[in-house]
Design goal:
Chain lengths: 376, 251
């Protein structure tokens, strides 16, 4: 696995990049808007692959980071929506806060509902954008320090992360006066970037998201190719051996866990730009589990594979949902796909592609080991 | 007097009421190869766990090159200059043989210091050198998980060469090996001596005679005897300890 042709990998990335950049040539704005959401999911899939495939840490609560990113962005956009600006105060106030306000509460963001002051800094959109990354990073760093510092590993990390996302969801729904509870944040304004509006249905918005995804994928792929990335994979295979070589294993795990969280927060932020809402469903267990399925099908050992897996599955899901009889069956279908992938393609589609390439090479070059040695 | 490479003072650990290691004091000089002998369950592996920080001791001290490292975390003791080979070989199965060795060359242990690509020329040369020393050059690109038992042990020894700690603990490096494999392992270990201080657990007396200078015998968690190969083989207490259980060469 480790040292198969680098060329083939580079080509796989280039083809994928070319494909997503070419899509605006073949579809209308509505379709592109939907694909843009899938690209955000693709970033999530890659984030899962980074921790699961490279660090051996299966996070079943990745939705927490996605949600943090999404809500940070949505809070800022909520404040810049027309309705928020027309509540009879000089400062914007989200409509749901007025509905939740105690009689006689001052119609001001500082104190209209308990905790509404938390929204104050989000009047700056850049604060919302920054928090979409900063919050996941801070939470992941603290979590990582605790979890990995205590040498918790394997299934226990999964259970803890699962419990955390459910807990966060409870809090989110419960804090109705500042989060709008179950309803989430809707009726959002547009992000203003240097005077231009990010219109969810503009082709340029699609390009922004596609380019950000490309940059993120390249950076993460380079990151795992560094020595740190190699050591991370080593800790996945044997924490003990890595410790005995003098590597501070928890520091490596925490660092990459945090990178994965930052990617998820970014994905959540971008998702809000095109989907125009944030909802507690982002913290549903089912959503976090779906991400794992995407990565498993695409290939958890491959950043690109997991990303493509996410996009593929969501595309299929959208197609299936068009047929009414299949809407209900979708959960069963996706479950089946997952089981089949785990049994027959443990390394997912990426692993399958990898095997195919290897076979082709070996047929062309009868003595591959010798050739590989000579090249080095 | 020069400082000892490795010293334990009254090192002990209890699991519940059971004292697996009970007041063990040993002194290993710089560059020495010390063999640790003892029946199954004598506490040899546990002693190595205590020295390397895997298990917390309940009493006593561990000094590495004169530095007190008692009960420190494994990676700290490793950075202080200790390496270890496990009884059950432990390598990075998902990485290639070459990558395993690359990881073992620890220039900077921190995560940020390692955000760079590839190895320097000297390090790359060192990796090739080690590949040849442990006889795995032909398997450099193979996944470590696909190696045979003996090859895995050699890779682990190779990783110790890469890490190049001052003191190396080897736990049964020839366990489960064929005679030919054992001979090659003896060769590798002899290549380590001089450059490193070694503490080796070994059962195979033929092998022990081949590599040992001094032997420490552990029995029921205590040091029973210490001396040269000949002295230990003639020692009445050692014979008594093994009598009725097993011969030294078989246990
Ligand atoms: N974590 C533990 N908890 C309880 N008992 C333990 C623990 N670790 C080791 N022991 C016990 O301590 C004793 C010494 O074990 P140890 O593994 O050190 O023996 P050994 O000399 O290495 O034997 P072998 O030749 O079989 O490898 C054994 O009786 C073992 O059961
Ligand atoms: Mg043992």
């Amino acid at each position: 696995m480790a040292e198969l042709s680098r060329n083939y990998r580079v080509w796989a990335y280039l083809i994928f990049f070319a494909a997503i950049l070419a899509l605006p040539l073949v579809g209308d704005e509505f379709w592109l808007n939907r694909v843009a959401k899938y690209l955000c999911y693709g970033m999530l899939g890659a984030a899962i692959a980074l921790t699961w495939g490279y660090a051996g840490v299966l996070n079943l609560g990745q939705g927490l980071f996605f949600g943090l990113g999404a809500y940070s962005m949505a809070m800022s956009l909520k404040l810049s929506s027309h309705t928020s600006l027309q509540q009879g105060s000089d400062k914007p106030i989200p409509d749901f806060m007025l509905w939740n306000a105690q009689p006689g509460a001052a119609p001001d963001l500082c104190c209209i509902t308990p905790g509404s002051w938390l929204w104050l800094p989000f009047q700056s959109q850049w604060f919302g954008v920054a928090m979409a990354i900063v919050l996941p990073v801070v939470v992941a760093t603290i979590l990582g320090k605790i979890i990995f510092g205590q040498r918790i590993s394997g299934v226990f990390v999964s259970i803890i992360s699962l419990a955390l996302v459910l807990l966060a969801r409870l809090v989110l729904v419960d804090a109705q006066p500042i989060t709008n509870g179950f309803n989430g944040l809707t009726d959002l304004g547009f992000l203003q970037v240097f005077g231009a509006e990010i219109d969810p249905y503009a082709v340029s918005t699609y390009y922004i998201i596609a380019v950000i995804l490309i940059v993120v994928l390249v950076l993460v792929r380079l990151l795992v190719a560094t020595r740190s990335g190699l050591v991370l994979q080593a800790t996945r295979d044997s924490q003990t051996r890595a410790l005995y070589l003098g590597y501070d294993v928890p520091a490596y795990q925490t660092f990459f866990f945090t990178v994965s969280a930052a990617m998820s927060g970014l994905a959540g932020m971008l998702y809000v730009l095109v989907a125009e809402f944030a909802s507690p469903s982002f913290l549903d267990l089912a959503f976090s589990v779906s991400m794992v399925v995407w990565a498993a099908v695409g290939g958890r050992g491959s950043i690109l594979g997991a990303c493509v897996g996410a996009i593929l599955i969501n595309t299929i899901e959208a197609k299936v949902s068009e047929v009414e009889q299949l809407v209900e069956a979708w959960k069963a279908i996706i479950g089946l796909i997952f089981v089949l992938a785990v049994i027959f393609l443990p390394q997912g589609l990426a692993g399958f592609a990898h095997d195919v390439m290897r076979r082709i090479r070996e047929r062309r070059q009868p003595a591959p080991t010798l050739n590989r040695e000579l090249r080095q | 007097m020069t400082t000892l490479a490795l010293e334990t003072e009254g090192l002990s650990v209890s699991f519940g009421r059971f004292r697996a290691v009970d007041g063990v004091s040993i002194q290993v000089a710089q560059g020495e190869l010390r063999v640790l002998l003892g029946a199954n369950g004598a506490g040899k592996t546990t002693l190595m766990d205590l020295i390397s920080g895997r298990t917390r001791s309940t009493a006593g001290r561990v000094l590495l090159e004169g530095r007190d490292v008692t009960n420190q975390r494994e990676y700290r003791i490793a950075r202080a200059g200790l390496g270890r080979k496990f009884q059950i070989p432990s390598v990075f199965g998902g990485l290639s043989v070459r990558q395993n060795l690359e990881v073992s060359l620890v220039r900077h242990p921190g995560v940020f210091a390692n955000l760079r690509f590839g190895l320097g020329t000297t390090d790359r040369q060192r990796v090739s050198e080690i590949l040849h020393l442990v006889g795995l050059a032909d398997l450099a690109t193979a996944d470590a998980a696909t190696l045979s038992h003996g090859q895995t042990q050699w890779l682990e020894l190779g990783m110790l060469m890469g890490q190049s700690p001052k003191v190396i603990l080897l736990d049964e490096p020839t366990a489960g090996m064929t005679q030919a494999e054992t001979a090659k392992t003896a060769e590798i270990i002899n290549g380590l001596r001089g450059r490193h201080t070694l503490l080796v657990v070994e059962h195979d007396m033929a092998f022990v005679r081949e590599i040992a200078e001094r032997i420490t015998v552990l029995h029921l968690g205590k040091v029973l005897a210490e001396g040269s190969v000949a002295e230990i083989e003639a020692n009445a207490a050692v014979k008594a300890a093994y009598l009725g259980t097993q011969e030294i060469s078989e246990c």
